[in-house]
Amino acid sequence: MGGDARWWDEDAYRDSILTHTENQTRTIFRTVFAPSRNSSPDTIVAASSDGSIAAYSLSNCISSNVSAKSFSSLKTSSFTEAEPAVILQGHEGPVYDVKFYGGDEEALLLSCGDDGRIRGWKWGEITEDLQHIQGDHPSPALEFINPQHRGPWGALSPMPENNAIAVDVQGGTIFAAAGDSCAYGWDVEKSCMKMVFRGHTDYLQCIIARNSSNQIITGSEDGTARLWDCRNGKCIGVISTKSNKMLKEFASVNCVALDTSESWLACGSGKSLSIWNLPAFEYNDCRNW
């Protein structure tokens, strides 16, 4: 079996190989449900290692798989690859987190990544005209850039990455956990930095807003989670994995989460999960996973 080599497109072949390799090795770092008018959201947004931000319709993904296979075969067969409804090239480098600022049609889709930037798109504009989005990527409605630090000889440090973001809609603030061991608070209305939270000794992995107490909580590679007062930027409490004798080894705090009452804090460190009662500020439970 032969072919006409005169029509061979070497560049297209190389591009197809690169695209296939990127798709096979792409990592999804974070997902979030998009705002919905009903109690069953249909759209999920994913942050990827290739710098893209993709929105998927869950109903379309499910229906395409059901129509392609019988129900019994779905249990054993691999699913077909989901096609995104919208793709934005959000950042130069991996996108580590996505969040929504607001919960209605005026909501902003926020993202942060390895390039040290926080970007926000108007979600209503994205959902209005999907065909236009596929052709020409819209410009972000807002952009915040992490500061670079000047060394003793005047040289600027590399741009610290943003590993996670949190939002306080009532306070008009976006918080970022950065790679320079600092957390930053950005004023959405004024488009400027309003506060820096310093105290960790290694880069930050995670951040969450405790809006009922006007606080944020950060987790770091230094093995601690810190509580911060957003009114003055001061650290008001430190939770350390070193002080927990039930943890078998020292580990960084990779993730933090609050319950709905914002009274209980879960900290993920290595293979362990510890639960803390914030009002009493005492250790309550720890499980190894």
From TrEMBL:
SUPFAM superfamilies named among the record's database cross-references: WD40 repeat-like
GO terms under cellular component: THO complex; transcription export complex
Name this polypeptide is given: Uncharacterized protein
Key words, A-Z: WD repeat
Keyword NADP listed: no
UniProt-listed Gene3D superfamilies: YVTN repeat-like/Quinoprotein amine dehydrogenase
Similarity annotation: Belongs to the WD repeat THOC6 family.
SMART domains: WD40 (SM00320)
InterPro entries per UniProt: THOC6 (IPR042626), WD40/YVTN_repeat-like_dom_sf (IPR015943), WD40_repeat_dom_sf (IPR036322), WD40_rpt (IPR001680)
Positions annotated as WD repeat: 88-122, 197-238
One Gene Ontology term from the biological process aspect of the record: mRNA export from nucleus
Species whose genome carries this gene: Kalanchoe fedtschenkoi (Lavender scallops)
One Pfam match: WD40
PANTHER family on file: THO COMPLEX SUBUNIT 6 HOMOLOG
PROSITE patterns associated with the record: WD_REPEATS_2, WD_REPEATS_REGION
